[in-house]
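Support request, please re-run this one:
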Amino acid sequence: MTDKELVEMALDARKNAYTPYSKYQVGAALLCDDGTVFTGCNIESASYPCGICGERTAMSKAISEGHIKFTKIAIAGSSEKICTPCGMCRQFMYEFNPNLEVLCSDNAGKFEKHTLADLLSCGFGSSSM
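Re-run finished. Output below.
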């Protein structure tokens, strides 16, 4: 799977976002070590803390299906600016792969490559306990 293909899957997943409050849609496509891809979108609630980001939706789907080894994730937002994961998502992803490759995209598919270690320096993991 190419980076561009994964970003396209994130852009497609974004279409399912439920965002009646912020109107900001995010899609994610998560590549597992065995080549399986899980997609997700953000889902808002009137009670904001109950919402979930696209990245965590994709990861939750994967984990609930028995996948916990991830190599790459693409994230696509609905604006002209590159969409990067929020702090909560960065920490959540860190739990499973501190060196995860993160493709951050705008609404047209233009993307930047990062590692999670670059996006979340000094992350908190099991070795921190």
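The chain has one domain: 3-119. Strands lie at 27-32, 37-41, 70-76, 101-105, 111-115.
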